[in-house]
Each structure stands twice: as structure tokens, then as C-alpha cells.
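ok so i was messing around last nite and threw this chain in just to see what happens. nothing serious, just curious
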Amino acid sequence: MIPVIALLLGTISARLAGFAGVDALDGWQMSVRAGLAGMLLLTGSAHWGNRRPDLIAMVPERFPRPGLLVTLTGALELAGAAGLLISRTAPYAAVGLALLFLAMFPANISAARRRLTLNGQPVTPLPQRTAMQALFVAAAVAAAV
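result:
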């Protein structure tokens, strides 16, 4: 739920800054890009912090080298966040992130079915996680077009 809050608060804060006169944020698309970038800084940084072992455990067993996959997805999230903030690369970054969100969803399904924990708390139940993932994909699509 924290990523959803970060996305929404980041987007709303950016939009308010646009209303207050920050020309770069004077529009919903750039505000969504800023909110999504903030969320990705939060989620991407978790790939190297205390939650790393939990994220590695979330990777379904059929995928090789789960530690490498967690590192790769974290790096892609951080690169995507940067890409969203550069006008020329933002549409490409947003499409790539939408695809990344879809590619990572099986790990969330697996974690929910196996009743894993993240930072000592149960992972988000599958119905809520599906809604969250749909929101993230929709935000990325909105950032792209």
C-alpha cells in the first residue's frame, strides 16, 4: 500500500506545484511522471535494503538466479524513474515500466499464494495486489501518452 500512497501523494504534490506556478509540472502527464518516479525511487531502493531477502524469496522457483533478478528489476525501476523525468525518454521509459510491472506480477502472485512476508508483514493479498498492479500499469500508460 505504501507504493500506492507514494504514487498518489507524489502525483498530487506535483500537480499542486504546477498550479502554484512550476511550469514543468503544469499538466497532469508530467505530474503523473513525477509521482511515478517518486514511487519507483522508493520501491527500487528496497531491492538493496533490508527487504532484499524478502524480495528474493518472492521470485518463483522456476526462475534462475533470483538475487540477480531482484538486482536487475531494482536497477530497471531506478533507471525508469530517471527516464520518466527527461522529456525525450519519458514515453519510452513509461512503456518499458508498464512492461516491467507486468513482468514482475508473477512474483507477486507467487508470494501471495505462498503467504510470504515482506519486512515481517504478510504480502498484499492477491486481489488488492492485482488492483495495485493495474494502477501502476495505468500510471505508466498515462505517463507515456
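not much to say yet. Helices lie at 2-19, 28-45, 52-58, 66-84, 90-113, 126-144.
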